[in-house]
Amino acid sequence: MSNGNEAASATTQVDAGGDRDARFFGQPWALAHVFGVEMWERFSFYGMQGILLIYMYYSIAEGGLGMPEAIATGIVGAYGGAVYLSTILGAWLADRLFGSERVLFASAIVIMAGHIGLALVPGFWGLGIGLVLVAIGSGGLKANATSVVGTLYTDDDPRRDAGFSLFYLGINLGAFFGPLLTGLLQTTWGFHWGFGLAAVGMGLGLIQYSFGRKQLPAQARAVPNPLPRSRYGLVIGVAIAAVVVLIVLVLVGVIRADNLALIVIIAVIAATLAYFFVILSSSRITAIERSRVFGFIPLFIVSVGFWSLYQQQFTVLTVYSDKRLDRSIFGWEMPVSWVQSINPIFIIVLSGVFAAIWTKLGTRQPTTPIKFGLGAIVMGAAFLLFLPFANGAPNSTPLLAIVGILFVFTVAELLISPVGLSVTTKLAPKVFQTQMVALFFLSVALGTALAGFLAQFYDPENEVPYFTILGFVAIGLGAALLLSIKPVLALMKGVR
After folding, report:
1. Quick one: which of 458, 456, 311 has its CA closest to 390?
2. Does the keyword Iron-sulfur apply (predicted)?
3. Low-confidence ranges of the chain (pLDDT < 50)
């Protein structure tokens, strides 16, 4: 643990342009605090999500809510999209009112309240209250945790991508243990015990972060673009009006469970266009910063394509694992949610490998557009790997096959997700730092909502068109970016 002088020294180094401390596996010690809270947040998030879909479509006799599968997968996609959509709110609160670190801490409290709601409030009320709170809290934490990590490095620090990869390791430690333990409790004592464990995990994260948050640099608490006090009343009025409109739309039946994914898709597209317009038209950014934002657009599009396939782990792959996968291990049937812990195992192993590769290559490593293009192509190839098992009988797909396919998922993820977080903070204009991170998460939001929307077209009796079309679309997106590397890099103005 660092003493007060060391913490003050680290803060001075950050404020002067990057933290040169290297006590956390070669990275700044302050990274350990954000690493910890993100790890426990992911434990609770993925632990809950590991049992969420089957909770919705399992029968009431099995402890579930008895929803139709198509509606349940759409809700999961919409919920996942709403998580990333709410990064806008979290980013705005950080940039205009409170600073990233304070919003991060408050968001963790909201997340814990959501898990408690799922655990203690029965039926559809518990589902609604829990998912809304977790979505809002997770959105606030996601954008701001990434932004806080970005304050620890200068743009040209060669440790930057490695640091984000290590941060990503913390995410996936939580993502690994969450579904394992909540799935075990769900199969032993019931769904609400699993949701309760997710609340306990987030509580542990809050305790750990409460002790370490003061050691973060002052820059993490800075408000880069403060809102004038004269506009507070207007903002409060708009917020209240937005909540009222949402409630009315639900009551009159415009927003329904069966069209939730489509509603979120439309909302994310509108938010994305508005965000790009606001940033690009701002008089507070320089010509170089504006060019870099334009360079971010093709990366955004490829990211959407990637996540629309990758996030089907929580829609199509969950249904596939429940009905088609042979989960028998020496006569014991493992819980459905355990399949979602396979990807984090590979992340834990490979994130260190990728971090070492990027560190070793230094300035010779592939540029971000190359990493993104390859990531989309590999993700498309992963979907094509389902084809040899397509249209099989129940429980006909060997567990080892899914393990292999998820290994390919992981390689694609490590080429896009931590790299995307890193390049976003480098391309961001100074007055839109956190909100640019929110823009990256909007690509995840759109992809996640699309994953729920696309799941309704998945037909276990005729899987070949589904996996083939989506696989080749992703490969095409990646190839198009690889063919456009020179103009994209020119727009990025020195950012690689």
Report:
1. 458
2. no
3. 1-17
Single out the residue of 200, 212, 211, 198 nearest to residue 148, CA to CA: 212
pLDDT digits (tens, 9 = 90+) for 213-242: 777 777 778 888 888 888 888 888 988 998
Distances (CA, A) of 420 to 25, 280, 282, 298, 430: 22, 20, 23, 12, 18
What are the chain's domains? 24-492 (1.20.1250.20)
Segment 103-122, tens digit of pLDDT: 999 999 999 999 999 989 88
Q: Which helix (H) or strand (E) holds 328?
A: strand 328-329
Nearest residue to 478 (alpha-carbon basis) of 358, 369, 365: 369
Q: What CA–CA distance (Å, rounded) separates 226 from 94?
A: 9
Residue 283 has which token pair? 């008089």
Note the pLDDT of residue 21: 61
Angstrom distance (rounded) from CA 324 to CA 128: 29
Q: Give the span between the Cα atoms of 33 and 28, in whole angstroms.
A: 10
Name the residue type at position 52: L
CB 450 within 8 A of CB 265: yes
Q: What are the b/e assignments for 444-478, b being 16+ CB within 10 Å? A: bbbbbbbbbbbbbebeeeebeebbeebbebbbebb
Q: Tell me 326's DSSP state.
A: -
Q: Give dist(CA 305, CA 282) in Å, integer.
A: 28
Its pTM stands at: 0.80
Residue 135 near residue 260, CB atoms below 8 Å: no
Q: Is the separation of the CB atoms in 286 and 493 below 8 Å?
A: no
Which residue from 223, 1, 99 is spatially nearest to 10, judged by alpha carbons? 1
